[in-house]
Amino acid sequence: MDLTWHGHSTWTVEIEDTTFLIDPFFDNPHTDTDPEEVDPDHVLLTHGHADHIADVDRFRGAHVVGTPEVTGYVTDEYGVEDTTGMNLGGTVELGDAFVTMVRADHTNGLDTGYGASGGTPAGYVISETKPTQESDPDSTSFYHAGDTALMTEMRDVIAPFLEPDAAAVPAGDHFTMGPAQAAIAVDWLDVDYAFPMHYDSFPPIEIDTDDFVREVRATGSDAEAVVLGDDETFTIGGE
Predict the structure, then answer these.
(1) How many domains does the chain have?
(2) What Cα–Cα distance (Å) separates residue 223 from each residue in 89, 167, 190, 193, 211?
(3) Integer CA distances (angstroms), 16 to 98, 128, 181, 232, in order
(4) Which stretches are transmembrane (predicted)?
(5) 8 A C-beta contact, residue 207 and residue 229
(6) Which residues have C-beta within 8 Å of that of residue 160, sequence separation ≥ 6?
(7) Sheet harboring 91-94: ordered strands across?
(8) Domain that holds residue 64
(9) Is the whole model's pTM more than 0.90, yes or no?
(10) Of 33, 35, 125, 197, whose Cβ has the fewest other Cβ atoms within 10 Å?
(11) What do you get for the CA distance between the two ends of the chain, in Å?
């Protein structure tokens, strides 16, 4: 599984012959990628804020997944045609992977001018095999936490039942967790690798990523805190 960070909360995830793009927002200082160069099979939207859906209409051949409220919104406002609305707790098979939608603690207003809601914000666990109560040590999975505060669901549901190997957690503070709470999330998730995201895109969320690394270490977690460079790819599992 190849994970590429394009700044902010924008990631591509490649599993065998299937490519996912999460929260497409390429107008940020940590990417030089032209969206036209990205050819995802599926686009996953965690919520409807502009800094997570701004470029959703750049991928006309892709299938877009989100809550029914968000997929309906991007259909109406962005002209996206191929969508699947799903909801928290659901798992769908998409190409060579399984995608489970999990809760995020955040807001989800849509830019409609009258305060419409996009439903409950979400995160996603992308796994090579369908999650079951029987652990599969050969399956690799990645958790994209979306925009979220620290929540015990990470410790009580996501870690024990979905068993992510790696997690991308927001660490920019102000609108989401900061480094200290993000590090607690990493510890609760019991992952092997942890990546900070949703930072440095604009002044209120500028941080020193060394703080994230130190905070992860301070929890006693065995996770490796990995600060990716712009458009850098990290491989987990497999060869």
Answers:
(1) 1
(2) 25, 10, 7, 5, 15
(3) 12, 9, 33, 19
(4) none
(5) no
(6) none
(7) 91-94, 97-103, 122-127, 141-144, 166-170, 193-197, 224-225
(8) 2-235
(9) yes
(10) 33
(11) 9
Cα 38–Cα 42–Cα 43 angle in degrees, nearest 5 = 75
What pLDDT score was predicted for residue 230? 98
Output the DSSP codes for 84-116. EE--TT-EEEETTEEEEEEE--S--B-SSSS--
113, pLDDT greater than 80: no
For residue range 191-236, list pLDDT tens digits in order: 999 999 999 999 999 999 999 999 999 999 999 999 999 999 999 9
Structure confidence by residue, pLDDT tens digits, 12-48: 999 999 999 999 999 999 999 999 999 999 999 999 9
Q: How many CA atoms lie within 13 A of 17 on its CB side?
A: 1
